[in-house]
Specification:
With 167 residues, this protein is α+β, with helices and mostly antiparallel strands. The chain has a single domain, classed as Alpha-Beta Complex (Nucleoside Triphosphate Pyrophosphohydrolase), CATH 3.90.79. It has 2 helices and 8 strands; from the N terminus they run ββββαββββα. Strands 1, 2, 3, 4, 5, 6, 7 and 8 form an 8-stranded mixed beta sheet that branches. The longest helix has 14 residues. It is globular and about 50 Å long.
Length: 167
Amino acid sequence: MEQKIDLHRVVATAIIHKNGKYLIVQRSPNLRVYPGKWGLPGGGLELEDYINTPKTTSDSWYFAIANALRREIKEETGLEVGKLKYLLDLVFIRPDNIPVVTLSYYCDWKSNEVKLNDENINYAWFAFEEAKEYDLVEGILDEIEMVDKILKGENSEKVEFNYKNLK
């Protein structure tokens, strides 16, 4: 009988918008996942994100992923952001065979200027129409398009992720 693996890395990313533009970061060429590609700020949930904080119920923590995402945004970009709004989820398997669950959010920029840490080597604020100029991680363009439509007030029932356009 095949052994069931019950482990996944949990990651969250943020599409940050400011004055009609979106923030992307270029990943370091030394990273194991998507080296050198342009992507979104974010990262993995760590035990330290909640284990040493008071539980919100008798045996659990609410908002651990949102708090981890805020921590990652701050570490990677130095930015403070507004309310995180859930967009979609994605699952993939890393090159080292670890399955990853990614939760994608969007939010508005609140304060500070971008100051990158060593995980990223460049950043850009761009209008959606300029997105094709960047070597984005596959699927990011579709996610940004979804947020662009939501922010422009397009009917949310018609705003869908177009995975059929992916190669």
